[in-house]
Amino acid sequence: MTLPARLVPLLEQFDFAHRRLSDRLAGPVMDSGNGTDVPVGPLTDDEYLWEPVPGCWSVRRHADGPGERAALLVGPGTWGRDASPAPHPVPPPFTTLAWRLSHLTEMLALRADHTTGTRSLTRDDHPVSGDADSAVKGFDSAAGAWRATLLATDDAALDTVGHSAYPYGSDPEDPFLDIVWWVNQELLHHGAEIALLRDLHRSHARPEPLS
C-alpha cells in the first residue's frame, strides 16, 4: 500500500523520535543533535527506578502498594504503575523515568491494538516492567507495533473519526490524523524528559571533586 502523502512527514518524525530515545536508552552511542555520536551506556535498574525527589510516582511491586498520593497500581503481574482516578492530584506528582517509559510503552501498544488489533486491551492487560532491560525492549516492541499500524493506514482512515478506539484519550472523537500527531508529541516530550532524567542521574551519582 502506498503511504498517504499527509502521513509521510509524521511517520518520519515518529521514526526520528523513536530512534533518538531508543539510542539514548540503550547506547552504545546517541546523536548529539548535530550528527556527532556521543557514547552512552545502557539504562541501569538504578536509573530506571531512581526517585530524585520525595513523593514520586513510579512503578512498584503490587505487594508493596501504591506510592504517595496514588490510589492504585495499574498493570497485571508483579509490577504496576502508580495511578489515580480523576480528579488527579494537584500539583501533579513528579514521575520517575520508569513511570514515563511505562506510560509511553502502554500508550503505543494499546493504541496499536485499538486501531489495527483486537480493540480490547486495557491497562489491566498491559504488563509493567520492573527492570530497565525489559522496559527498553518493551518500549521498542510497542513502537514497532504502532509503526506497523501507521504503515497499514490509508488516506481515508486519516480522516476517520474513531479509527482508533483507544479508550484513554480523545481517539473516539478525533480524526486519526490528529491522533498520529498527538502520539508524536507524546513521544517527543516524554523522550526529552527521560533523556534529562538520565543526565540528572549521571550528575547526581558523580562524586564531588576534592577541594
Protein described:
This protein has about 210 residues and is mostly helical. It has a single domain, classed as Four Helix Bundle (Hemerythrin (Met), subunit A). The chain contains 6 helices and 5 strands; from the N terminus they run αββαβββαααα. It has helices at about 10-25, 45-50, 95-115, 130-150, 155-160, 175-205, and strands spanning about 30, 35-40, 60, 70-75, 80-85. The strands form 2 sheets. Strands 3-5-4 form a 3-stranded antiparallel beta sheet. A hairpin with a 4-residue loop joins strand 4 and strand 5. The model has no long low-confidence stretch (mean pLDDT about 95).
In short:
The chain is mainly alpha-helical. The protein has helices at residues 8-26, 45-49, 97-116, 132-151, 155-158, 176-205, and strands at 29-31, 37-39, 59-61, 72-74, 79-83.
What is the element string, with H for helices and E for strands?
HEEHEEEHHHH
> What strand order characterises the main sheet?
3-5-4
Task: Please state the overall shape, judged from the principal axes of the Cα atoms.
Answer: globular
Q: Specify the number of helices.
A: 6
Structural class by SSE content: mainly alpha
Q: Quickly name the level 1 CATH class.
A: Mainly Alpha
Strand content: 5-15%
β-strand number: 5
Low-confidence stretches: none
Overall pLDDT: 94
Percent helix among the residues? 40-55%
CATH architecture label name: Up-down Bundle
Oligomer: single chain
**Major sheet: size, sense and barrel closure?**
3 strands, antiparallel
| Radius of gyration, CA atoms, in whole angstroms | 18 Å
What is the total domain count?
1
Here the CATH topology equals Four Helix Bundle (Hemerythrin (Met), subunit A)
Intertermini distance: 65 Å
